[in-house]
Amino acid sequence: MILLPHGEKVKSRQMKAWVEDRLMEMGCVRDTCLVAVGGGEILDLVGFVAATYCRGVPYVTFPTTLLAMTDAAIGGKTGIDIPGTKNLVGAFYPPRQVTIDTTVLQSLPEEELVSGLAETIKHALIASAPLFVFLEENLDAILGRENGTLLELVKKSVVIKKAIVEGDPYEKDQRRWLNLGHTIGHAIESLTTLRHGEAVALGLYWEGRLAVEMGLCSREVFERIASLLRRVPFALDLEISIDDLLERIQLDKKRMGEVTYFVGLKKIGEVEVIPLPEEVLRRCFAPSSQMIT
C-alpha cells in the first residue's frame, strides 16, 4: 500500500516519480494492477502512473468523493499539473473498472460534497435539461446527504459523461463540451487556493455571463443557472486581476495555436465550442475596474 497526501499538490512531477520509485522497490511489473482509492487528484495521478509505468499497467478505481464519482473516474483522463497550469502533462488511459459506493459520501467533508456538485451541474448544462430540473427539485436532499437521492444523482451524471466519452474518447468533438466552466475555472484555480469544483462553479457562472454578453444565451436562462449556483454554498464572489486571469488562460491546454476556446452556453442542455476573443473577456469581466468582483 502506498499512502498519498490529498489535494491538488499530489498531482506533481515529483510525486509521480516518488510513486514510481515505490512501485519499483515493491517489485511491481507489467502484470501489476494498481488500485486507486480516493478523490479526483489521486485518480488522476495513479492513472497517469499506470499509463507510463512499464509502458502501461492496468488499474482500477474506487472514487470516494462526489467529484471523483461523477467526473475524474469516468473517461480515462489522467495527468499532473506543472507550475502555472493544470493537467498539461497526462494521457488518455481508462481504468479497467470503476467501483462506486455512494454511502462513502456520508463521511465526506461538507466542502468536498459542495465542490463535487459543480461537475453534476455542468453535466446538466451541456446535455440534460431534465437533470437540471432534478438538481433544482432535489438540492436540499442532496445537501442533506439522502443516499437514495445521491445515488440517483451519481447515476444520471455518470450516464451523461459515459455516453460523451465513449462517442469521443480523445476529445476531438463532443467531449470538448465537458470543458464548460473550465477555461475560466482552471485559470481561477491556478491563481487561488480554491478546490477544483469551487473554481469550476465560478467558471460556470462567469462563462454563463460571457455567453450572455456574446448573445449566445438569454439572460433569463443565465439567471436560472445563477439561482441554482447561489443555492449551493459556492463562493461566487471573487476579486482577481483580469490581466492575471488572461495570462493563465493563455496556458490552457485546450488552446490551439493563437486561439483560446471556451464552451459557450446556448440554453440548458445545449452548448457550442467557440473561439474566445480577449476583448470580449475584458468587456464582460472588467468594463471599468479591470477586476472580477
Secondary structure layout:
Layout: H1 13-25, E1 34-38, H2 40-52, E2 59-63, H3 66-72, E3 77-82, E4 85-92, E5 97-98, H4 110-127, H5 129-143, H6 147-167, H7 182-191, H8 196-213, H9 219-231, E6 240-241, H10 242-249, E7 261-267, E8 270-275, H11 278-285, E9 291-292
Parallel strand pairs: 1-2, 2-5
Antiparallel strand pairs: 3-4, 6-9, 7-8
Helix pairs in contact: 1-2, 2-3, 3-4, 3-6, 4-5, 4-6, 4-8, 5-6, 7-8, 7-10, 8-9, 8-11
Observed structural traits:
disordered C terminus, alpha/beta, 2 domains, Rossmann fold, three-stranded parallel beta sheet, about 50% helix, about 290 residues, globular, 11 helices, two-stranded antiparallel sheet
Question: What do these coordinates show?
Answer:
- The chain is of the alpha/beta class.
- The chain folds into 2 domains: 1-100, Rossmann fold (3-Layer(aba) Sandwich); 155-292, Dehydroquinate synthase-like, alpha domain (Up-down Bundle), CATH 1.20.1090.10.
- Helices cover 49% and strands 15% of the residues.
- The chain contains 11 helices and 9 strands.
- The protein has a 3-stranded parallel β-sheet. A two-stranded antiparallel sheet has the order 3-4.
- Strand 3 (77-82) and strand 4 (85-92) form a beta hairpin.
- The longest helix is centred in the middle third of the chain and has 21 residues, at 147-167.
- Mean pLDDT is 92; it is low at 287-293.
